[in-house]
Design goal:
68% of the residues lie in helices and 2% in strands. It has 217 residues and is mainly alpha-helical. Strands 1-2 form a two-stranded antiparallel sheet. It is globular and about 55 Å long. The chain starts with a strand and ends with a helix.
Length: 217
């Protein structure tokens, strides 16, 4: 399965976009589906150096990935600088915090994104999109349990949110090998959102989950 990330929100220069695009090609090695609020397809770059070697790209590829990650952080730092400057005089502004978090998420700097999302959620606890994004970031960081916890908390505010249900099912299937729970999440998604844009994708994933559930018995 591929990854589906959030869509970058404005402000990238042409040079930055070209740099980021090239770096994504270097980092785009493996992944799982995951949906961000904007629902734009993208490749999951979350495999770390050790996992990259296991994936067969060798030490040279792992080194290139590490270098590319640092370059992407630098690009994100540059774009976030104006908002970070504003944050100094308004440190609890949720819009600024979310905007900065989005910049780092788009640059695949998930730990940094989580920090800013967490700060924003202190004053906007029920913001389902931000909490779902934070859960997705935890998934890309390799923390399935924390991702599931954030998705379930998001669902306590919006029980039928399609993106949250999609991602919860994905992490339960891929991260916890819990096909039954994944199927339940996706059935709820389709029942509550019959015109869901990604219905075909969900049905494909449900078929895979049913296959896995059958093999487990």
């Amino acid at each position: 399965m591929k990854a589906q990330n959030r869509s970058p929100r404005g402000g990238w220069t042409v040079k930055q976009a070209l740099v980021l695009g090239g770096l994504c090609l270097v980092l785009g090695i493996a992944g799982g589906w995951a949906i961000h609020a904007a629902q734009r397809p993208a490749v999951d770059p979350s495999v770390q150096g050790a996992n990259a070697a296991q994936a067969g790209i060798g030490q040279a590829g792992a080194n290139a990935q590490t270098s590319a990650t640092k370059d992407m952080k630098a690009v994100a730092d540059a774009q976030a600088a104006p908002q970070l400057a504003k944050l100094k005089s308004d440190p609890t502004n949720p819009e600024l915090l979310i905007g900065i978090g989005n910049i780092y998420y788009d640059a695949h700097q998930y730990p940094v994104a989580v920090q800013y999302y967490a700060e924003a959620l202190k004053t906007r606890q029920s913001d389902v999109s931000v909490r779902t994004d934070m859960g997705t970031a935890y998934w890309f960081m390799g923390d399935a349990d924390r991702a599931i916890a954030e998705f379930k908390l998001a669902l306590s505010y919006a029980p039928t949110n399609p993106n949250t249900l999609f991602n919860l099912g994905l992490v339960e299937l891929q991260g916890k090998k819990d096909a039954a729970s994944a199927l339940d999440d996706w059935q709820k998604l389709l029942a509550a959102n019959p015109n869901y844009e990604g219905r075909d994708k969900v049905e494909q994933m449900m078929a895979e989950a049913k296959k896995q559930a059958g093999e487990a018995h």
